Amino acid sequence: MWRILATGLCFSVFGVGGLLLTVLVFPLQRLCYRNDVARNRVARKTVHYGFKFFVTLMSITRVISFSVIEQHRFAQLKGQLVLANHPSLIDVVVLISVIPNADCVVKAHLFRNPFIRGVIQSTGYISNESPEGLLQDCEQSLRAGNNLIVFPEGTRTTPGQALHFKRGAANIALRCQAPISLVGISMQPSTLTKSEAWYQVAKKRAHFKMWLSDSICDRSVLPTNTLAQQARQLTQTLETFFKQELITHE
Prior knowledge:
The chain is α/β, with parallel strands linked by helices and about 250 residues long. The chain is built from 8 helices and 7 strands, in the order ααβαβαβαβαβαββα. The chain has helices at about 1-30, 35-60, 70-75, 90-100, 115-125, 130-145, 170-175, 225-250; strands at about 65-70, 80-85, 100-105, 125, 145-150, 180-190, 205-210. α1 packs antiparallel against α2 and α2 (about 35-60) packs across α4. It is globular, with a radius of gyration of 18 Å. The two termini are about 30 Å apart.
């Protein structure tokens, strides 16, 4: 019962925080920073610390326990395409809380969400509405030294089903030719999944575990034919890697 109440409290704070940033903080930043690049950078830093607060709140209220292995390595990332599996609702929150100057690809419908659309617009996060525009925006973001977070699944993992990656992440990797960092995420027991409401908490407190893999994504072994074939092969390679990585860590 306590974890249901505490979860409701945390997500209420999240929603109210998003509104306050939109109504108060970001308008002040727009007045202080006329340059779009500088304004986006400051807004992302604000979100970075805001998400740190949210993760700390969830930990203090004992909603979820967190373990980020070798957290200092995340802080050293620069200009990386960060690929991660996606088991829970808070994956991107934890990632942005530990990765500096993080950019991410956001579903187009979230730009209409009243609680977070102001945050998305102020930070300059990338919409997935236009495939061609998406690739151009991703390339520009990576060239600027941002760390671009992408979930190859495209949505949260369905509990009980194997990972299934789409080709979007592979296309970004191939078109942008950016260095890739692979991040594994585990939530045990499963909670805050795609098929569960926020109040359907697990019978015991869940533990969120995240790690930066030492493995390197070698694109030199991909077929030298068409980009579509390379994207298909890279997607299969990433999917197999993450399946093995999760088995090893769990």
